[in-house]
Amino acid sequence: MNIDWAALGQVFGVTLAVTVGIVGLFTVGIVGTSRKPQTEGATAAGTAPGTGARAGAVTAFALCAAAVAYGIYLIVAA
User: Fold this and answer.
1) Does residue 63 sit within a domain?
2) What is the rounded CA–CA span in Å between residue 29 and residue 67?
3) Distance between CA atoms of residues 41 and 77, nearest Å
4) Which among 29, 36, 61, 78 is least surrounded, fewest beta carbons within 10 Å?
5) How many domains would you assign to the chain?
């Protein structure tokens, strides 16, 4: 039995990079939708995330969903 170590290393590297990328995108989405810590006497409108942060979070979540859907497609189509 021969193991193609170069191919195994390539699969490991791509898997690691994609995993870190998806987790990073999901983290950006969570941070974009999180509220700022409320300070003493702050209004409720001042603690909500801005429009740009919310749009970036939605984009990050959409990219995560697209990556998961593509992975499922690759598994099912084979």
Assistant:
1) yes
2) 14
3) 56
4) 78
5) 1
List, for residues 1-57, the tens digit of each pLDDT value.
899 999 999 999 999 999 999 999 999 999 988 876 666 666 655 566 778 888 999
Q: Is there a domain that residue 72 lies in?
A: yes
* Domain assignment of residue 25, given as a range: 18-34+48-78
* Chain position carrying tokens 């990079």: 17
Structure tokens at 71: 């992975």
In which residue are the tokens 């995993």 written?
19
pTM of the model: 0.73
58 within a domain of the structure (yes/no): yes
| Helix (H/G/I), strand (E/B), else coil: 48 | coil
Residue 29 · residue 57 · CB < 8 Å:
yes
Tokens, residue 38 = 């409320």
Closest CA to 57 of 34, 76, 74: 34
With the C-alpha atoms ordered 26, 59, 76, 11, is the resulting torsion angle positive or negative?
negative
